[in-house]
Amino acid sequence: MKILVVGAGATGGYFGARLAQAGRDVTFLVRAERAEHLARHGLRIVGLGERTVLAPNTTQTGKIEGPYDAILLSVKANGLEQAIDDMAPAVGPDSLIIPVLNGIRHIDALAARFGDDAVLGGVAKVATTLNADGEIVRLADIQSLRYGARGDAAPARLGELHRSLSDAGFSTGLSEDIDAEMWAKWVFIAAVGAVTCLIRGAVGEIVAVPGGTAFAEAVVDECASVAAAAGHPVPAPALRQTLATVTEAGSSTTSSLYRDVATGRSAEVEQILGDLVSRAQGFGLAVPLLELSTMQLRVHQNRIENARLV
Questions:
Q1: Ketopantoate reductase N-terminal domain spans which residues (predicted)?
Q2: SS3 state of residue 92
Q3: Across the strands, what pairs with 172?
């Protein structure tokens, strides 16, 4: 299958690189600046004892010639609208789109543009970041990609897609209920994000002070209540993992939201927390800690956006 990876950042770049290493037909859709950097320095994966350098195939907006069989979409939420326009020429009648963005509201935007049958659900788990040199830095040995049809859809070529993505150096799985898995991941990232951003610290620092553990547990309860009300209760094992993550003594765990705030970058507040709060309000649920976290991050986001206008 011809695979297009939209973005060559910490997530898309990592999985795309592994697929290319495994001999798959992979092309990265990137902006001109990133294309130039990759042409000059290669696509690099470092950390945990690894130093991989690849010479990736790339394309740019306006240069896509014909559809791709599979499109792995991994961009920040604020780049989704532009990414949809950029990748549109690559979407044909038999193309399958695997989005691995945070939250779930991106699904509606993709389905509205390309149709329900083209859009799968996807969950990526990988601990990577992009450093100042444009390298993909591995932070932990976590690397899995799961995908599947949403609802009652049964897209053609799903089995072929699974075979093309498998055995490429990371764990893959064809999910029978990808909607539930997307909600479970959403609860996890929202809980870790709210806990670390609201208190402004790593998990270990938070649970080391009086009330820290109870606070973290209360945040998880709020997140899980929204998933249950939406008809996608988090399975007990996944919920235990989330609770363990946000209450682990001595843990240095933070969150992507926290790291964005700490470094003055734009944060995905609406996609990770704002949308969750909105759904909770629609269900008539009280989620005061999530509301407070969302308010705090909206203040941060407004500062970032106002600074751009100066």
A1: 3-148
A2: strand
A3: 145
Q: Looking at the chain, how many residues does it have? A: 310
DSSP 3-state assignment of 287? coil
Is-contact 147 156, C-beta < 8 A? no
CB count within 10 Å of CB 29 equals 28
Superfamily of domain 2-176: NAD(P)-binding Rossmann-like Domain (3.40.50.720)
DSSP secondary structure letter of residue 285: -
pLDDT in tens, 150-171: 977 667 789 999 999 999 999 9
Q: What 3-state class would DSSP assign to 213?
A: helix
Helical pair 288-309 and 212-229, crossing angle rounded to 10 deg: 90
| Segments making up each domain of the chain, as ranges | 2-176, 181-309
| Average pLDDT rounded to a whole number, residues 51-60 | 96
- pTM of the complete model: 0.91
Tokens of 123: 């969950």
CATH architecture observed for domain 181-309: Orthogonal Bundle (1.10)
